[in-house]
Every structure is written in structure tokens, then in C-alpha cells.
Amino acid sequence: MASLAVVGQPVDPTVCDPVHLASIQAHYGVNLADMDPDLMKHLVDGSKRAGNDAFKSKGYKEAIKMYSQAIAGAPQDHTLYTNRAAAYLALGLYEEAAWDGRKAATLVPDWPKAYYRLGCALLGLSQWGEAARVLQQGLHLDPCNTDMAAKQAHAAQREYAEVAARGAQADTERRGIVAQMRAARRKDAQQGMLNQFKQSMVGPEWEVEDLEWRPTFLPTMRLKPVQAEKVLADPKNRMLASYLTSLADLAHPKQALRILEDLPRLQAFQQGISAALDQQPPDAHVLVLGAGGGLLSLLAAQAGAGRVTSVERSRMLFRMAKQCLEANTTGRNAESAQKVHLLDRRLQAVGVQGEALPPDVMLALNLRQQQQGTAGATGRAAVQSDTTAKDIEELASLLPARASVLVTDLLDHSVLGAGLLPALDYAAQRLLVPGALVVPQQVQVFGVLLELRVGEVSGFDLSAMNTYWWHPGAERLDLSRMPHRRLSAPFPLHTLDLQARLASCQRQCQDQDSSGSSSSSSADTHGDRAAATAVWEYDATLEVPVTASGRWNAVAFWFQVHSGAAGANAVVGSWGGGDLSRSSANHPPEDTLAARGVMEVSAEAPLVAASWDPAVQYIDSQEVTAGSAVKLHVRQDTGQYVFTTQPPQCRPRHALVPRWHFDMVLDSERNSAYDAAITGAVRRKRAAGCTDILALDVGAGTGLLSMMAARAGADAVYGAEITQHMCDVGEEACIMNGYFSRITMLDRDVRRLDVFRKPDGTPPDLPRRADLLVYEVFDAGCIGEGVLHLLTAAQAKLVSMDATMVPLSATVFCQPIQMRVDSVLGFDCSQANRWRWRPDYEGIELGACRQKWIALGEPLEAFHFDFRRAAAHMKPDEVQLDLRFTTSGVFNAVAMWFELQLDEETSLSTNPYEDKGLTWQQAVQWLEEVEVQQGQHLQLTARHDTYSISYSLPDTLSETGQAAEVQQAARQLASASICTDGQLMDTAMAGVRAKDDGPSASHPCRTSVPLMDPAWKAAYDRLGQFNGELAKACVQNPLEYRATAEAAVQFASRPHDLGVDVQQAVEFCSKIKASRRQLYCSLTVAAASAALSKAARAARSDERQEVMQRIESAYDGYAASYDELDGGIAAAQLGFPALRQQLLSVAHGSVLETAVGTGLNLPFYDTGAVTSLTAIDLSRGMLDQAGQRAARLGLANTVQLVQGDVERLQQLFDGRTFDTVVDTFSLCVFPYPAAAIRSMAACLRPGGTLLLLEHSRSDFALLGAYQDLTAQAVAATSKGCRWNDNVSQLVEATGLRIQQSKRHVGGLIVSIVAVKPI
User: Fold this and answer.
1) Which end of the chain is more exposed for a tag (fewer CB within 10 A), N or C?
2) Is 169 exposed, middle or buried (CB count within 10 Å of its CB: 0-12, 13-18, 19+)?
3) Per-residue pLDDT tens digits for 131-141
4) Cα 923 from Cα 780, distance rounded (Å)
5) Which segments of 92-145 does DSSP mark as H helices, in order?
6) pTM for the whole thing?
């Protein structure tokens, strides 16, 4: 074998190189090329046979020698190379064997043995990936070679393991970087906070480390009962409980509206009620708990009940039910309505005449007697003896007799969250006769194992989000919209036999009575929530077969309600996604169902109630394999189902990402459109000659768009994300995808970012202005997340003049629609529509509920926002739209959607008539109902305040029938929030019950349904004020946040123990854990948040106006003596006149001078170069002095003097631009210098010149430090002058190019000539 090579030629290690071969031939005096071919063949064959014999006798070295001799004579014989490769393999010389294998495959590419030998050599070299590919080539040529197939499988397996190991190592290293980056950002935030305290010379009552505290939620917290008395002894906890109850009271009516729209649910109850009453004597007494907006009570009365007693669980639900009943007191339903007795009481304040008083009444009477000093008589007998009938009537509602039928619809998505079982137990003991029937009779609960995870999205690994995908309770989740994988077949979990439970409760009461215990004592025991939940009513471990491999991290569960009637509509379910029909291959065996107490499943799938959804409980993620089984521990108490695994969940949860973030990243349509637009934008920037592309991603969130920009070719990307948790997620995702060196995540509001060094020495956030601006900060109403404000700030400070933006613009469309309930199962429920109203629009997936709304007219364009000119949209605007109705109906809502123009070719729409992704819903704003006819017109006002879009109807609309003046008075009362308890509104609306005359033939008319319920509006406003105070306290003081967050976690873990609404408790906990920084917005309901935000903006505007007024007043006072102070001998000695003249010699064309003062610059303008001169000043006194100077110089008719604010130049001159803008010695006294220079730059035409002569921080280090030290003192004694501003950085931050910068007077004065890019 050769060791030499000819320079410049590749070496073939399988044969003797030409130089070595020539030396051998010279030594022996032979030339192989001259040998007889037959002799050469004889020698080759002999060497080959000798090699084969040596190989068989395991003389591998001799075999290699012989094969090499043969190759010297026949270098093209491929069999010799594979034979020698086998000998090399036997000696473990894998590299030499690989050479021969490659040579053989090169000589004969379709010979399987060559690939086999090469593959074996590569296996010996541990080159698993290449070995697997080579052996696969061999198998393609020889598919039946089992030995080769085994080796290929082994190589592939080892390659997979090696790749996984390398990936795990890389992930570990990257997670280390993530932790370091996260710690660095936290440290920067703490340092920034410390700097603020040092500058303000005020220290907080808390430590900076308190800002980093986050609440911890442990899954085991749901398993441990909470002692309500102990928790609620804390005043703050009592306040929070009251707050959550108030939130629930406001939310319940809107939830009840979904029931009124859910016919399958109502029809199942209707059949169950009829079946129960068929088994009772005529005129039976029915007790209804959870009346569904009053409709279940009317259905019971219609079915033949003699008396119906209805109890609601909140005050607003009582009002809703009362309005529904009153609407049916006339006409064919009058008889049914008269049978219904609606009680304005909590259930625990309802009893039966002649029996023990209800527990709430007993507690109230005890408390009243204690306050009156008569608590010495203890015991219930003493209390009752001292109680007057008036007291009882005031505190209790006593039924004339017990009821024989109970109807309850206290079911939510989690089955028990609405208080079904405690209500049933109370009614069984105190309000129902023995043997009473209950509707529904049974609730069956089913489950399925799920994988709910984010994996690869648009080619990026976003699994970092999964850490934040959880929920403190059972989350209501529409699985038809959320991508998921089922890892098991649906299986039965549990059955709640309500009829059997009712009978059992009554037997227990009878046993207690016979043993001497009172029913009231029993009731009190059940009233103790902690005691009631201390024991699990159901506790079982199920073995669930796994049907698909994956990462199991969730259990979805749903239920079927059996109303007790026979028929196709008697069973209704909360989810249609679980196939439980008899024909399903996944249906569990019949004996399994019977063992768990599950009724036989009907052959037909039950109807699905749209007002329910499946519930999902998250668990710690674990790998499962198809064909295996997992153990699921199921527990149930009076208020919840809890699932645990083996091993049990123990992972603490500190932060939670709002669900809409997952909708965004899982929206493939949105992602594809943005990816295409960003890629095109980067390509165009490259084509335009931009060699170093800097991209800025506003509202970066998960970092997905930032990674798209980096993948498209951006050299550096900065992502700005205000939410700390999302910034953590985005940073981790970028690092784990290998973009650590190119993407920087900034945990800040983009409005607080800069490209120049801060006064406290903090380095700039961005190294320079960005070339590409990417953003996705849109809500259902387009501008609700402040996109206009964010873009205005970014364009002013952070992006270059010629930056490319994605998206470019948005067009907002609106359409009049009817979305309401009217007649439901023959009853008038139209009055329930007032409970839809909210002060702001709400997001609704209109495309998914097309059957619930009617389009009454064609879509109209409301607004068009050109984001390249975001500042132009930064003032409120309104337009008048002419609605032409193409369909008759009741106009009560405006549907709104938008279309984003990402670039010239790509758009993204939220149109409900088109297929769209998960990200955005449509926005719906509720209006006062107007009855319209086809062909009628109506003026609709659309307006935006830069934060939100709203719509309003004209005030001149007429009322239906005779109710005009009554309705108008009612609206005035509601808008003024006078009728806080709703009584005045009810009185006013009594006059509206008269029969309507119908709409006018030519004009739309209002219906009798008011826009809102005034009592709800008053409660909403009060709660909004409290929301603001709570949010402010939590945001400003981390100790207050900590106390609130700890209580929120406790309430969300066991809400039923503490007597609070489950949904509100878990939602509040989710918001608390989402982000403390954004808690202010998340706590408040939509309108209160918007109102508070507007109030804050107004406060800032008022503060600025106050500052400007002080400046104006001060300079009015300085005007007469200003020239002596600033333009006198001292100024001349410093050379200021010469500096002014030198600078102003550059001025040309149309000139604007800001802060002209007394006109000290007027003598230095070249009248030949200047075509027009406009001068502004905030002070009228200064302008008067300037006018006098202009008159003395003969310029009175040349100079136009205008009083105005330098920050409002565009508004002041209505968009006019100038060739030159001049400012001298004024920038230092402007309260907001950066805004002032941005305003000046905006008034320059492209190519225009900015001339500045200003105080500036010296470039001499010692003098600059002295300026910093004395800045506050100088400002206090020199009319507010800040003499240490870095003027050059301020100018560069606007995107202007500085052509000339000179320093004077030791660097304390700077003259700058800057040009606006064309």
C-alpha cells in the first residue's frame, strides 16, 4: 500500500500509488503493462485463491497480502476489494475496510455486497447514521438479505439513540443558557428599579426581590379540605370571597342566556318534568333550583304542576327570571306564569311553615340577638321563642308545604361546580316530601386520555410553552377547536344517581329524627362545607387501556344527563366528541359498565347541549405506549372531580400563559401568512441593498415571528414583550431553536425602548433603528391592544424612515345582525336579551354559530388604518354609515371583523363567512334593540378613540307603541345609574308592557327591551371601581400582590369549601398567575378597564397641559427682561451671536423656527435664501417681543408669528412641511425633548434640514460628570434648563442623518446640521 502521492492529485488508499508502483517496477526490472495478459490473469487468480485459502484458515494478514497482490494486477476487479474488506473487518481494521467497500461500490454501484461490507465497516467505526443509509442502499438492491436488514435496523436504532443523546445534551446546554439569560434579565430589572429609587431618593416598604415572587399552585392542594371558618377569619379573604361572589352575580345571567338558546338541553328537561308529573297526583308542588332564566319553572307549570316554587342562586338571576315571568303574565301563558312563585332568597334561607327555621335565618337571628344583648338565651328553642313573625318574614321564605318534585339544572362543564349536590341534599332534608322525584335522575360521567401539547409549529420547536399550559381546576375547553390527540377510547368514570341520593338523604334524616337528632342539626352539619368535603364520596382507581402512544398530560371528561323520561330527547350530553354508541369498537364491555354503575348506553348517540363543553384536567406529562394500561385515580366530593396518576402529580406551577396564546401558535393559517410576508420583506430589503438587517418584533410573545424573521435572513432580531412569563417562553423557544446569537428578547413595553443611552447610564435597548418592523398586537376589534400607540412610538424612536412593516394596513368591516332569543318552547324570553349587554365589544366565533344570528344588511367598511402612517390615526375619529337593511328583523348588534394586508400579496382576514384560524374571533357590540323592515335605512355612527372601536344609534329613534316617554325615562335612569336596585327601572318599564303597535312603516323603531338592566349596570360600575383599586394595589406593592395571589390560589384549589363560585375563583387565580405587571388590565372587566385606561390617559394629558401652562406663564414673565439675561453681554462674550449667524447661514427655502423667543435669531437669516419664515413660541409675551424686533428689522410682513406647542407641529400646521427647521437654546427647557425633536423631524420635507444650537453634555469626561452632578441644581436656577442632554443621540433617535456636529465652549454647546433621508 502506498504512502506517497503526486502533489495535486487525490490519493486512492486502496491501490498502490503511481510513484510507489514505478519504484517497485524499477527495482525488479519489470513493467506490468508489458506483461502477457494471460500470465497476468494467471498471477491474479493465483493470488486471489491464495488469499481465499488464507482467509478460510483465519490467516487474515496473509489474505490481505494476497488480495493486495491480486489488486495490483487487476485494480478494476470489484470482488477483490470486498474480499480484502472482509479480511480487514476480521482484524478490526474498519477504516481500511471502509476504503475497500467504497471502492467496490464505486466500481459496481449495483452490487449489494459492496454496500454490505461498507456498512459493516461503518458500524465498526460507530458511524451509525452513514451505516444505516449505506445498508439501506444495499437492501434496496437485495431486499431478502436478512443479515443486512438486521444490521441496518441496528444502525438506525443506534443513530436514533445517538441523535437523541446529542439533542438531550444540546437541550441541557441551551436550558443552562436560558436560565442564565433569565437571571440576567431579572437582575437588569432589579437594577432598573434600584436606579429609580435612587433618583427619587425614596425607598419602598418592600425589598426588590419581592418583585420576583410568584404564587405556587400544587396539584395536591385540590385534595386537602379547607376550613372555611379559619380562612374567612382573615378580613382580606372575606373581601376576596365577597368580590368573587359579586363577579359571579354579574356573570350568571349571560351564562343563563346560553341555556335559553340550547334547545336539546331544555327539551330533555321538558320531557323529564312531564314524566315526573305523570307519576304525581294533580296539582303537584314542584321545586325548581336553577330556573334557567325562569323557563324551567314555566315548563313545570305548563306540564300540570299546581304550584311551582323557584329559587335562583344569585340576585341577578332572580331579576332575569322575574322579567321572563312578567313577560308571560298575559296571553296564552298567563295561567302557567301565575302558578310560579319566584323567591328572592338564597336556598339556605328557604324553609317550610311549621318546621325548623332555615340555617341562614338561624344564624341571622342569633347575630341580631347578640347585637341586641339577648344572646344569653342559647339554643334554637330560645331563638325561636324570641322571634317575631315579622323577623321571620324579613329573613326567610317559608313554603306552605313540601314539594313532591325537584327540578334542578345546577350543572356546569365540571359537573359539580354549580353546587348541584349541596342543593340537592338541602332540598331533600328540608323542602321535599319523602319519596319525591328529582329531574334529572342520573348523571353519567365519561373520560378520555388526551395529549394536549404544543410541538413543532412552522418548523420551530415551541414545546417550551407546555410548561405554562395548565389550569388550577377543570378547564372548560372546546376540543373541536383545540388540536389534540386521544390516547385512549372513551371510558366511563362514574355515575351520580340523583334519585338514589335524594332517597338516601331523606332516610338519614328520618334515622336522625328517630334517634333524637333534629333535622336542623343535620342540616347544619351539611352546611359545614369543610366537614362535607372532608370525605370522598367516590374514590376508585381505574385501569385505562392506552390505544395510541404519546405524552399523556390531560384527562377530558364530560357527562350525559338522563332526565328520567323515555324517548329520543330524554338524554343529553355535554360533548359530542366521545363516541359511546353501541356500534363503537371502543365501547367498553357491558360488565365493565355495570360494575361502575353506568346505565346501558342507548344505541343512538344522545343529543349534545351546546351550552356545556367538556372539561379538562391537566396532569404531569408522562410517556405512554399503545397496548399498555395506565392507572387513573378518580375522586369525587360534593363540589368536584379530581384525577390523580401514579406516580401522583407533584410539579409546582408558578406561571400560566393565557389560552389565547395557544390559539395563536396553533393557527396554521396565520403562521403561514406571516411567514410568507416576513420572508418576502427580508428578501426585498436584501434586494434594495440592505446588507445588515435589524428586525424588531413588537409583542413578540412566544418568539415565533422573531424566529421567522431570523430564518428568513435577518441578521439580528429584537423581540419586545411586556409580559414577563411570555418573554421567558419566547426567550426559551428562541434559544432551544438555535437562535441565541441572533434574537434578543426584551422584557419591556416597546414605548419605553430607545436607541440611545439613558440619562442614568443604562445602555440603549437597540443598537440602532430597525430595518424591519413585525408585529401582531390585534384583538377581535383590531386596535384594542393599542397597536396604533405601539406603532407610533416605534416609528418615532425605533425604526428607520424606510423600514419595512408587516403588516402594512388593516381594514375594519361591520355588519348589522340580529342575535337574540325570542320565543323559546312557546314562552316569550325576549326580555332576557338585555343581559347580553357589555360596555365594550366581546369576541364571539360567529362562523361557528351561524344558526344563532341573522345578517340584516350587507357588510360595510368602517375604518382603514395605514400602519405606515400610524401617527395620523392617533386622534379620535368617527364616520357615519348608512345601513340599508336587506332582511327584516330586530337589529341588536354590530358584528365587526378586519382584514390585515401583510404585504402587497398576502392578506389575513377574520371574516365570519370564510374559513379562518383559531387566533381571532369576531367582535360583537350590543346595541339597543331596533325593529327594522327590509328596505329601511338607519344611520350608524362608528367611532374609534385610538384604543377601541364602538358604534352608536341616533337618539331620534321612535319607540314602539305607546311606550316612548316611559322608555326614554327608563334609559335616562339607567344611564345615570340612579336606580341602583332596579326598582325604579322596573316601575318605569311597567308601562312598556302594553301591546306594541309595531314598527313604523317607514322608520325603524325601538322594541320594548331596554339596552341593559340598570341594577346590573349599577353593580358593574361599583365593582369596576373596586377592580381598579385592587389592581392598583397589586401592581404598586408586591406585598399586596403576594397576599392577594396566595388567597386566590387557595380559593381556586377548593372553591366549594369556601362557598365561592368555582368559575370565578379559577379565572381570578389564572389572571393573578398570568402576570403581575398586566394585572391592572386583566382584573378589570372590559368596560372598567377601558374607562380606567382612558382616565389614565386623560390624567397624563392633564399633567402635561399643566406643565405647559406653567412654562407659558413663566416665560410670559421673563419676556420683558429676556434679552438682558440671555442675549446680553455674557452671551456676546461666549460668542453666541457668531454661532447663531454661522448656523443660520445654512437656512434656506421655507423655514420654521421653534421657540423663537424674543427673536434673537431674526437678524441672522439670509433673506435671499429664505423664501418664507414661520416662527412659533408657547409664550404670547415672547411672541410680542419677537414681533417688535421684526418690526424694527423691517420684517413685520415677512415673519409669520404663531403661538403653539412644539410637540404639536403637525396638528398646528395641518401636515405642512418645511425646507428648514431651526431651534436654538430651547431644547433644554422642553419638558419632553425627544418628543419635540420627533415633531420637528415630522415637519421636515424629505431632504430637509434641521439646524440646532443647544446646550449639551460635554464630551470632556470630567466636565460631563460635573454636568450630571449639578443638573438638578442648574435646572432649578435656570428656568428649568437641562444642560446635560445628549442632543446628538436625541437627533439620531429620530432617524435624521447628522451631516455636521461641532462643539463649542468646552463642549457645553453643540451646533448640529441634520438632514431627513429622502
Assistant:
1) C
2) exposed
3) 999 999 999 99
4) 5
5) 94-107, 112-124, 128-141
6) 0.71
